[in-house]
Amino acid sequence: MANPSDRTLVIIPTFNEKENLPLIIGRVRAAEPERVDILVVDDNSPDGTGDLADEMAADDGHIRVLHRESKGGLCGAYIAGFRQGLEDGYDVICEMDADGSHAPEQLHLLLDQVDAGADLVIGARYVKGGKTVNWPWYRWALSKGGNLYISLALGAGLSDMTAGYRAYRRELIEKFNLDELSNAGYIFQVDLAWRAVQAGADIREVPITFTERVIGESKLSGSFVKDSLLVVTKWGLAHRWNQLKGLTAKLRK
């Protein structure tokens, strides 16, 4: 009997990742040589990443490339990848960074849980067994504390809602209105997880080792923390207000 993961697409967004791309693709192909295809979504990288991706795709039928005309952000790249993956009939669609921070060797942990019935599997840093490598203590504390606040504000019960290493069943993605996704910093990852919670999805977290990039510079803006937490606070207040209204309506009956 076939498993959902037998038809898996891994989306790898790129912008100036020419040095990292062969490394991450090589690791994915070695870790999952049969059941996983790769879609590189390149935002017109001036360093030639897109051209390199085309060359690799020409030599390997498991690799495809989607070129975007300009740098449109990580959220836009993933949405484009989701749409392509759905159109091409994949049963599982994954998110993975190009810089090596997400270990392809741990991808099976996510896919195994999808095969076991999960709708969304998050590779989490803050569950038992999860860890970060080469992060200064203050960055770990900021990320850990931010995720704790997000989970409490929304009542989501998840430890790592900002994590970007994920596997989705196509049926869950089809429930999302991709045009509505927030693009305030990296908040779209929280947005997707929160939509999955509200949809009653089976969400599971598996421990992964997150390793800070060695080659290139992080594209994460420092303003994302303030912007993201502000948006989450608004969502949380709206959620609690709706809960209160629902409880009040029940008491009046």
From TrEMBL:
InterPro entries (alphabetical): DPM1-like (IPR039528), Glyco_trans_2-like (IPR001173), Nucleotide-diphossugar_trans (IPR029044)
Any one GO MF annotation of this record: dolichyl-phosphate beta-D-mannosyltransferase activity
EC code(s) of this entry: 2.4.1.83
Recorded catalytic activity of this chain's protein: a di-trans,poly-cis-dolichyl phosphate + GDP-alpha-D-mannose = a di-trans,poly-cis-dolichyl beta-D-mannosyl phosphate + GDP
Keyword Oxidoreductase belongs to the record: no
Top-rank lineage group of the source organism: Bacteria
Keyword annotations of the record: Glycosyltransferase, Transferase
Pfam families recorded: Glycos_transf_2
Domain Glycosyltransferase 2-like residue range list: 10-175
GO process annotations (BP): glycolipid biosynthetic process
Record GO cellular component, one term: membrane
Similarity field: Belongs to the glycosyltransferase 2 family.
PANTHER family, alphabetized: DOLICHOL-PHOSPHATE MANNOSYLTRANSFERASE SUBUNIT 1 (PTHR43398)
UniProt protein name: dolichyl-phosphate beta-D-mannosyltransferase
Organism: Corynebacterium terpenotabidum Y-11
